[in-house]
Amino acid sequence: MLIKQNIIRTALISVMGLALGVSVMAQAVPKGHRVGIIGLDTSHSTAFTQALNDPNAGDTFGGYKVVAAFPQGSLDIKSSVDRIPGYTEAGKKLGVEIVGAIGELLEKVDVVLLETNDGRRHLEQALPVLKAGKRMFIDKPIAASLADAMAIFDAAKQYNVPIFSASSLRYIQGMEEVKKGEVGKVLGAEAYSPSPVEKTHPDFFWYGIHGVETLFTAMGTGCKTVTRVHTEDTDVVTGIWEDGRIGSFRGLRAEKKDYGGGIFGDKAIKYLGTYNGYNPLLKEIIRFFQTGIVPVQPEETLEILTFMEAADLSKAKGGVPVSMDDVMKKAQKLSNKISNAK
User: Fold this and answer.
1) Per DSSP, what are the bridge partners of residue 13?
2) Strand 136-139 to strand 234-241: parallel, antiparallel, or no bridges (unpaired)?
3) Domain parsing of the chain, residue ranges
4) Is 319 helix (H, G, I), strand (E, B) or coil?
5) Which residues are paired to 138 by β-bridges?
6) For a Cys-Cys bond, which of 126, 141, 165, 242 suits 119, CB 3.0-4.6 Å?
7) Are the C-beta atoms of 174 and 199 separated by less than 8 Å?
8) CB–CB of 286/135 below 8 Å?
9) H helix or E strand, kind and range, residue 262
């Protein structure tokens, strides 16, 4: 009889919670561990939610759960917009409350995953999160322009809120061994990834960023000039670092679509494995939510975007070398105007 009463009581609580528009998941998650998502137009949203809200996750993700989501991400990218209804229903089945505005979301969560597929919307969607003082991970690309990315980081500094952005390909198989010194000093690297283009974004911002981030994870910052060779099917972008090291990115369109690369060290040469899934990145995100310590510095993220914008400029100029400093200075002037207008 007691068991039956408890079952009935639990059912009534669930029904009442739904009737009041309150997520039962949110009721069960302690304050400080409530994750909100902005943008249900990418598979990343569903993948992160499935991992965090898995009843068998245990302590893998520190008890953090997705409790609410604002579904509206992209507005005019059909391939993304068409995903929103399906991913919204998937979120509901995982216990996520769907809300109608970012302001409403921020009242229900402690930290935020900005997942909107369209980087052009990231600045406007990030600002209310920063003003609310909530730590935030911004999925790739952090913005659809270097200037917008600078404005986002400037706002984060203004409101004293730590944020970071990264591709999951930063954690490609084999990279951890490279970072631990297995190849010795990294003297050069080659990375590749699929690189389809989307007309609303600079060429590599949409997808090629995955391979570019792999390259910078191995090489670090300090790239000074960028040269791009372009054909309809393939791009090869070569960067020369300030200490003379050379790194390159190959964007694949006609070739077999895959991720990988080679790292050239003074002790060994290592060929990277393939994609390592979302969990390595997600664990870093949760560690960041817990500590406020960013695993990827703003300077590196901005240099990745500078590399990609410089590559576009090199293409436009017929493949001549382009100065990273010149691209960054131009973007900084535009970013200052954007920030002053906010």
Assistant:
1) none
2) unpaired
3) 28-168, 169-276+298-341
4) coil
5) 114, 165
6) 141
7) no
8) no
9) strand 260-265
- What are the distances in angstroms from CA 306 to CA 14, 49, 241, 326? 50, 31, 13, 10
d(CA 84, CA 335): 31
pLDDT for residue 294 is more than 60: yes
Query: What is the CATH number that goes with domain 169-276+298-341?
Result: 3.30.360.10
237: enclosing H helix or E strand: strand 234-241
Mapped onto helix, strand or coil, the DSSP state of residue 148 is helix
Measured CA angle at 15 (ends 10, 19), to 5 deg? 150
Which pLDDT does position 335 carry in this prediction?
96
Q: Please compute, for residue 233, the number of CA atoms within 13 A of its CA located in the half-sphere on the CB side.
A: 4
CA atoms within 13 A on the CB side of 190: 10
pLDDT of residue 275: 92
Distance CA 39, CA 47 (A): 13
Q: What is the pTM of this model?
A: 0.91
Residue 57 has pLDDT above 90, yes or no: yes
Q: Round to the nearest angstrom and report the end-to-end CA distance of the chain.
A: 61
With a CB cutoff of 8 Å and minimum separation 6, the contacts of 21 are 97
238 Cβ contact list (under 8 Å, min separation 6): 226, 227, 228, 229, 246, 247, 248
Strand 260-265 and strand 163-166: pairing? Answer: unpaired
Q: Which residues contact 162 (CB under 8 A, 6 or more apart)?
A: 135, 156, 288, 292, 293, 294
Bond preceding residue 280 cis, omega within 30 of 0 = no
For the 28-168 domain, the top CATH level (class) is alpha beta
Amino acid in the structure at residue 90: A
CA angle (292 as vertex; 286, 297 as ends), nearest 5: 95
Helix (H, G, I), strand (E, B) or coil at 36: strand
